[in-house]
Write a structure and sequence with these properties.
The protein is an alpha/beta fold and 431 residues long. It has two domains: 320 residues, 3-Layer(aba) Sandwich (Alkaline Phosphatase, subunit A); 63 residues. The protein has twelve helices and 16 strands. The strands form five sheets. Strands 6-5-9-1-10-13-4-14 form an eight-stranded mixed β-sheet, sandwiched between helices. It has a two-stranded antiparallel sheet with strand order 2-3. Strands 7-8 form a two-stranded antiparallel sheet. Helix 6 runs antiparallel to helix 7, helix 7 crosses helix 8 and helix 10 runs parallel beside helix 11. The longest helix has 26 residues.
Length: 431
């Protein structure tokens, strides 16, 4: 998958950030929740897929068009009708227009962080960033709370994850594929061919080297949770390498060609295909990436020639593919960038960073599709009434998964921290 550099110099590749490490503790609130019988077993969603639109897509040219606004605001694109009466989206998203009943559009989502890294941290964790603490990404919380089959990782990032496990520790970080699948070809994960070309003896030699390194690290920091987390990673890698079940789960070439065809041949489409396969195999959380939305210049050409057709094909196939496999009702899907873009077009034919108004999409797993929740004003400059906060969307996602967003963990220093500090589930979204 191509890497993208945003205007502030941050690459659209993901790095594993090891922040404050720590475990968790049972609080009174947690205990009372369990006593009431609240559990993931009763949740509508058993898994989730997070689609990251890195760079910040414009809301005005995608899912929140303003055809009656002045030309310098409304841009070049026209709205088209969807299969839901009264809902319109961009003319360059015809496949998503044809399946709008499967997802909900959130308009007037709003925050105040206009830098890529800060905005991305906010929407990936559901917590406004603070200097003293690194919050865990959604997938890391899911990895802490929900179990996957023993031979599969709980949390997979295709190809990598922009945000780490924060104070939960590296053991709950994403298992990154470090590559994206290619249509019709056996997939490679972490440089390991899934066609059986890596022998067990080779794996064992690598394990011996890792043990030597672990011993060295242990002498330096015998009580380090980082070493413990890395050790669990190495054990998991060995299990996956040697597991037929894992190799089958990651190998998109095993899909029926007729089913796979709708996903197309782009990196994003193939990542979405892999996501459906991983959910079907029992993986609990998958992140996929589509970068390049930092359109300060030549916004409309970039959108209509590449970004929107790629998104339209891959995301529509994801919704319909999950439905075809009987997985949409049990899989929550969240689609977002880090912010929207300015209502007024700049002199370079682009739109700049704009967190005051943006869109998000949600689908499946307890989400009521075929609706618009929230609204922006007549120029897309801000929420029409009260805005939707990323915190509220995060609380909604966790509720779909049966995870109490108010649950507290303890950091390594004993500091109690709620999963989502300031958010409430959006009732209108919940079916």
């Amino acid at each position: 998958m191509a890497m993208h550099r945003t205007c502030d110099g941050v690459r659209r590749r993901d790095v594993l950030r090891v922040g404050a490490l720590g475990g968790s503790a049972l609080t009174l609130a947690n205990y009372l929740g369990w006593a009431r019988g609240e559990s993931a077993a009763a949740a509508p969603a058993k898994a989730a897929i997070f689609v990251n639109l890195g760079g910040g897509p414009t809301h005005l040219d995608t899912f929140d068009l303003k055809p009656d606004a002045p030309a310098e605001f409304r841009g070049e694109f026209n709205p088209i009708a969807t299969n839901v009466p009264g809902i319109q989206i961009s003319e360059h998203l015809p496949k998503l227009a044809a399946c709008a009943d499967r997802y909900a559009i959130l308009r007037g989502v709003s925050h105040t962080l206009a830098a890529h890294e800060l905005g991305s941290s906010y929407v990936h964790t559901g917590n406004r960033p603070i200097a003293s603490l690194q919050f865990p990404a959604f997938g890391s919380v899911v990895a802490r709370e929900l179990a996957a089959p023993a031979e599969l990782p709980t949390y997979v990032a295709v190809p990598t994850s922009r945000h780490g496990a924060g104070y939960l520790g590296v053991r709950y970080a994403a298992f990154g594929t470090n590559a994206t699948p290619k249509a019709g070809q056996p997939f490679t994960v972490r440089g390991v061919a899934l066609d059986g070309t890596l022998t067990l003896a080779q794996v064992d030699r690598r394990q011996a080297l890792l043990r030597d390194l672990d011993s060295t690290f242990a002498e330096m920091a015998s009580d380090s949770q980082l070493v413990e987390g890395l050790d669990s990673f190495s054990q998991q890698a060995r299990t996956i390498i040697t597991s037929r079940q894992a190799r089958q789960a990651f190998d998109v070439s095993k899909e029926d060609p007729k089913f796979a065809a709708s996903f197309g041949a782009t990196d994003f489409g193939q990542s979405c295909l892999l996501a459906t396969r991983l959910v079907e195999s029992g993986v609990r959380f998958i992140t996929v990436q589509l970068g390049g939305w930092d359109t300060h210049a030549d916004n409309f050409t970039k959108l209509k020639d590449k970004l929107l057709p790629t998104l339209d094909e891959g995301l529509a196939a994801l919704f319909l593919g999950l439905e075809q496999k009987g997985l949409l009702d049990s899989t929550a899907v969240m689609v977002t960038g880090e912010f929207g873009r300015t209502p007024k077009i700049n002199v370079r034919g682009g739109r700049d960073h704009y967190p005051r108004a943006m869109f998000m999409l949600m689908a499946g797993g307890g989400i009521k599709g075929g609706q618009v929740v929230g609204a922006s004003d007549e120029k897309g400059a801000g929420p029409k009434a009260e805005g939707i906060k990323p915190d509220d969307v995060a609380a909604t996602l966790y509720q779909c998964l049966g995870i109490d967003h108010r649950k507290e963990y303890n950091t390594s220093t004993g500091r109690p921290v709620m999963i989502v500090r300031d958010g409430q589930p959006i009732r209108q979204l919940l079916g």
